[in-house]
């Protein structure tokens, strides 16, 4: 199983990351200080590190420097809450592979993680499919059967989330955190609104309402499967 080290001191973000990564099939370990991050990055069983720049003890820059000085190739995705590009540029110069500016959407981070892991561990999944719905992740094209459907970026991300969790009922809260990010108001009805948009474009039966729980992608009678499954 792919193991991801999370170095982040804000517990809300740690729990957001852990929930999302575990439900996407990764195993995670979280630390909340620079020295702990350096110590654990030494453990070669990790496949990738998510590194917050604003860490206590030693900050993310110092962690990155220490890790790279040891010659470790561990892919690092930096999280930065800071304005301006200076920190980002410095992070990349110090050997970060990519960065995300907070607040971020989980699906976007996941895409970057997959990109970084692709070379070493994963054949890339470029097409995901469930029932009659197919998404090409590279060209960002969606289709139902033979019919190509035009989706906005947000609709595409929502549909991708449904396909990746095709056997699960997804709550509004899960969908919010996956597609809209942790800063979104949990009382918002934006999920319902976007499910409505998707139903209008895909056809009514594609997304089922599970009363009192949430939504689920309708995949029968075809057996759901991923083309070229990764991970
Ligand atoms: Ca922080």
SSE layout:
Layout: E1 3-7, H1 11-23, E2 27-31, H2 34-41, E3 48-52, H3 60-69, E4 76-80, H4 86-93, E5 98-101, H5 106-118, E6 127-130, E7 133-136, E8 141-144, E9 147-149, H6 153-164, H7 172-180, H8 190-202, E10 207-210, E11 214-217
Parallel strand pairs: 1-2, 1-3, 3-4, 4-5
Antiparallel strand pairs: 6-7, 7-8, 8-9, 10-11
Bound molecules: calcium ion.
Calcium ion is lined by residues 9-10, 52, 54-55.
Shape verdict = elongated
Largest sheet composition: 5 strands, parallel
Strand order of the largest sheet: 2-1-3-4-5
Instruction: Please give the number of β-strands.
Output: 11
Structure description:
- It is a single chain.
- The protein is α/β, with parallel strands linked by helices.
- It folds into two domains: 3-117, Response regulator (Rossmann fold); 127-217, Orthogonal Bundle (Arc Repressor Mutant, subunit A), CATH 1.10.10.
- Helix content is 37%, strand content 20%.
- The chain has helices at residues 11-23, 34-41, 60-69, 86-93, 106-118, 153-164, 172-180, 190-202, and strands spanning 3-7, 27-31, 48-52, 76-80, 98-101, 127-130, 133-136, 141-144, 147-149, 207-210, 214-217.
- The chain has a five-stranded parallel beta sheet with strand order 2-1-3-4-5, sandwiched between helices. A four-stranded antiparallel beta sheet has the order 6-7-8-9, with helices on one face.
- α6 (153-164) packs across α7 (172-180).
- It is elongated.
- It starts with a strand and ends in a 14-residue tail after the last strand.
- 35% of the residues are buried.
- Residues 222-231 have low confidence and may be disordered.
- Calcium ion (CA) is lined by residues 9-10, 52, 54-55.
- Residues 9-10, 52, 54-55 line the site of calcium ion (CA).
């Amino acid at each position: 199983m792919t193991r991801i080290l999370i170095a982040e001191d804000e517990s809300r973000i740690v729990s957001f990351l852990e929930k999302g990564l575990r439900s996407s099939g990764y195993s995670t370990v979280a630390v909340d200080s620079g020295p702990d991050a350096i110590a654990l990055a030494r453990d070669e069983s990790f496949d990738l590190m998510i590194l917050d720049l604003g860490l206590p003890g030693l900050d993310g820059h110092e962690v990155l420097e220490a890790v790279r000085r040891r010659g470790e190739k561990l892919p690092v995705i930096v999280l930065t809450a800071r304005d301006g590009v200076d920190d980002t540029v410095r992070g990349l110069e110090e050997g970060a592979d990519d960065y995300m500016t907070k607040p971020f959407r989980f699906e976007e981070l996941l895409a970057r993680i997959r990109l970084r892991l692709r070379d070493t561990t994963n054949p890339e999944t470029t097409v995901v499919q469930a029932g009659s719905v197919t998404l090409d992740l590279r060209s960002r094209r969606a289709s139902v059967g033979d019919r190509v459907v035009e989706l906005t970026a947000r609709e595409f991300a929502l549909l991708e989330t449904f396909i990746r969790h095709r056997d699960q009922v997804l709550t509004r809260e899960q969908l919010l955190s996956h597609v809209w990010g942790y800063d979104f108001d949990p009382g918002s009805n934006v999920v319902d609104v976007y499910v409505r948009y998707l139903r209008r474009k895909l056809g009514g039966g594609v997304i089922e309402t599970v009363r009192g729980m949430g939504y689920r992608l309708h995949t029968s009678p075809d057996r759901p499967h991923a083309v070229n499954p990764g991970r």
